[in-house]
Amino acid sequence: MKKELEEVVSPALEKVGFGEIKIIDGNWVYERMVKHCVQRIVIYAHRFDQTKFRYQLFVDAGKGGIRSDIFNILTDNEAGTLDGFWKYNGTSEDLKAVLGEVLISIMDKGIPRLEKLSSLKPTDQTGSKYVRLKAEHELLNERFIQRKAPIADRFDEESVSGWINLIEEDMDEDSDEITRTEHIYEAAAFLSHRVIEAAGAEWVSENIIGTEYFRLGNVPHPFVEVDYLGRIGAAFKDHNKAIIRRDLEKMLKAIHKMNEK
């Protein structure tokens, strides 16, 4: 796809200040600097079908944080598919034709959305990092699975050890702030989904002193940490791998006790 992107999409984006296409985590990425913000357009393939793809927008506003917008509704309408992915028939010529449609969407709607995201003040954003987790946790979970290929169908010593190693690989990478933030969100969504499947937990929203949290409820043990977004974020910030290991080992013990009953 890179050849077709360079031929169809790159020339138009370069005219409005985006640099050459990059490959980050297996995705195709365009970046530019606007208003002291890094704007990023990420194009990525479907996990199970490499002839399907979509795009996502990111803005790194420094201390303002990462603002993300995924075009679920936009791609549903313009791609004409239920899952929001554009699809081509596997040939280079058809891919170029479909990329032409994607480019129109990016230029007409994607870039104006990036401008809006870049102009927001921190207080104009969602108000909480958990709002994004609530809106995108299914997609973030799928992205972690696609990127890291973990064992995802069981919650035992082997799988938990594997998850920890995969998350620590991301922690050890010398990645930029946008990429590290994406890895944190993806890992948090992935772990939360595994606990939901293994322990019958569920997503809950809580408002605590004016901050809206979105995390797990109905967990098998009341003293097990379930705010994976907060915990993984803290682990990445301090490069403290023990935080994740300790939390997952506690959860594994709790699930074992639950299954013994």
Fold and architecture overview:
- By secondary structure, this protein is of the alpha+beta class.
- It folds into two domains: 120 residues, no CATH class; 132 residues.
- 53% of the residues lie in helices and 19% in strands.
- The protein starts with a helix and ends with a helix.
Summarize the structure.
This protein is α+β, with helices and mostly antiparallel strands.
What is the element layout, followed by pairings?
Elements: H1 2-8, H2 10-15, E1 22-24, E2 27-34, E3 37-45, E4 52-60, E5 66-70, H3 72-79, E6 86-87, H4 92-119, H5 129-148, H6 157-172, H7 177-199, E7 202-208, E8 211-217, H8 228-238, H9 241-260
Please state the CA-atom Rg, rounded to the nearest Å.
19 Å
Secondary-structure content class: alpha+beta
Uncertain segments: 70-77, 122-127
Q: Quote the average pLDDT.
A: 82
Which tags fit this structure?
single chain; 261 residues; alpha+beta; two-stranded antiparallel ribbon; elongated
